[in-house]
Structure formats: C-alpha cells, structure tokens
Amino acid sequence: MYLPRFIKKFRTFATMINKKAYRLPAEWEPQSGVQLTWPHAGTDWAPMLDEVTKTYEEMAREIRLREPLLIVGPPTNDTWARDHGFISLVPSLLLDFCFNGWGEKFPAELDNAINRRLYDDGSVKGEYVDHMDFVLEGGSIESDGKGTIFTTSCCLLAPHRNQPLTKEQIEERLKEYLYADRVLWIDHGQLTGDDTDGHIDTLVRIAPDDTILYVGCDDPQDEQYEGLRLMEEQLKTFRTIDGRPYTMKKLPLPLPIYDEDGQRLPATYANFLVINGAVLCPTYAQPDLDAEALRIIGEAFPDREIVGIDCRSLIKQHGSLHCCTMQFPIGVLQAP
C-alpha cells in the first residue's frame, strides 16, 4: 500500500537530479559563436536592403573579431535569429521551439525549419530536443544562469501563442523545458511600435552580480511613461533566489524615432548583445543618450569592451541588435 507514495517520492527525486543536469546559461557566459540570419530580397528588408546589409556587416565584423560566426542564408522568411534560433542549454542541449511569427502575425514556416536544417547538416552539436508543440521566442526570456527565468506576461500570454494554456501551466512548461527553479513575470511596460507583444529583451536585461538593467522614462508626457514606471516599481520588488534585492540600473529611453508614415519605432538601448570580451550596443545617432547608455551598460559589464553599433536601420523593421542575433554556449557551434 506504500507503492504509490514511493513512486511519487522517486519521481520527485528524479526530477531534482534531472534539473541539475542542464541549465540555461546567462548570456555573458563563454560562447562558441553567434548566429546571424542574413537579410535578402525575399524579406521585408527588400526596399532598404543595401542599408540594412551594411548594419549586418558591421555586426558580423565585430562578432567575428571575438568568436566564430554562423550565417544562415536564404531561403528564410525573415532575419530575426533571436526568435527562430535554438535556445541552447548547457551542456549541449538544443531546444527547438515553435516560432509562429509572433503570434501568427507574419509568415514563419521557413524560419521555423532553420534549426532542424542546422542540426541535420552538422553545423551545431548537441542533443536535439523537439518542443515544436510550444511557442517560445528567444527574445521573450532572460536567464541569470542560476535557475531564474525572467519574462513578460504581455508576451507569453498574448493571443495565438500557447492558448488555451494558463499562466500557471506556461510557467510549469518553462521550468520543465528550461530546467529552471522559478519564473519572474514582468506585468508592465511595452514599447510603442513593438510587434512582439513586449519581448523582455526590449525592456529588461540581466547582468552579472544580480544586476537588472531596464528601460526607464523620465518624461510624463511620453505615451510609454506610465507603463515603464509601473515596470520599474515591480522590478524593485523582485528578490534574488536567496532573498536579496537586485542591483538596479536604469537605461535612458531614446528620443522618439518615427518611420515615413509617422509611426513611432521601438528604439531601445536594452537590446544589446553580450559576446566573448565585448558588449555590442545599439545606438541611434543621439550622441548624449547613446553615450549615457553605453556608460551604464559598461558599468554592468566592466570586464568587456563596449561597442556601439548604429541600429537605425534595424528599428525600421521594429527590432534591434539583440533581435538579429542568437548566441551559442560552449560546445554547440562547430567552427570550420
């Protein structure tokens, strides 16, 4: 009569052991390379292909100076490697989640096939795990490398992602699939012009020593002011897994940038990429604000070179530098 209780205890023990086997590393941990999915005439970049290609070439040069670079070419629907790329756990677990064009807003069938192609042709190494029954974009999660996953409720609970799963069920999936101990949900803040439904990498980023970098707004007249204020207040309530408050660093908000139709674009300094020895940071030809953002990011990553890259071309398609890239931890990318 004690068998069911024994089985339950055994499963609990097995889960604890299994959780220790893998983890989602922090972005600042050693990397084996970075993926760029290159723009081409069959994407929305077609009207400004030369302009955006120059930005990609600059990103590629800076990455290649420090680590291997994997370039994915056509056919693809688009170029946002952060959201269609593998989410890689250490050691060498390649998680392939469903990418459905940010809630079925855009075609994604070609992008959704990239990971399997890379795995089948030997470009990446590790154990392939099929999670294609669950929608998850890399830009929607942040990891401290110590078992805490940060995400936004406005994105993960948005329509056409994982309904009819509840918030509690989605959280359990995240903990199970990412071998995480807990999930911290951010319930406020979304940039005007952001069509990802509020990816965390446009708003809040995690840095070493339990540091949170977040986008702030000091102008009460700005349409984003109240949401970002509420986000800041919620972040102040967060505690580390051992109960301590996080170190908070507020990034400035770029001055509004508009497209040719007068629509505001989601410019943000939070969309930086950490690589081996450097942090590549978006800039927007706003010298004072650009310099202030790079200074603050440099404080959070004092052991790395801080490199600014003009991302005015990227935000014309509503993304920025981090959105274009996906890093691989050690042991994943097979350098030529």
Please describe what this structure looks like:
- The protein is of the alpha/beta class.
- It is 27% helix and 23% strand.
- The chain has helices spanning 3-19, 49-64, 81-84, 101-104, 114-120, 153-156, 167-177, 225-237, 287-300, and strands spanning 31-37, 69-72, 87-89, 93-98, 127-135, 141-143, 148-152, 182-186, 204-207, 211-215, 247-251, 273-275, 278-283, 305-310, 325-329.
- The protein has a 3-stranded mixed β-sheet.
- A hairpin with a 3-residue loop joins β9 and β10 (211-215).
- The longest helix has 17 residues, at 3-19.
- Residues 1-17 have low confidence and may be disordered.
Explain the layout of strands and helices.
Elements: H1 3-19, E1 31-37, H2 49-64, E2 69-72, H3 81-84, E3 87-89, E4 93-98, H4 101-104, H5 114-120, E5 127-135, E6 141-143, E7 148-152, H6 153-156, H7 167-177, E8 182-186, E9 204-207, E10 211-215, H8 225-237, E11 247-251, E12 273-275, E13 278-283, H9 287-300, E14 305-310, E15 325-329
Parallel strand pairs: 1-2, 4-5, 7-8, 10-11, 13-14
Antiparallel strand pairs: 1-15, 3-4, 6-7, 9-10, 12-13
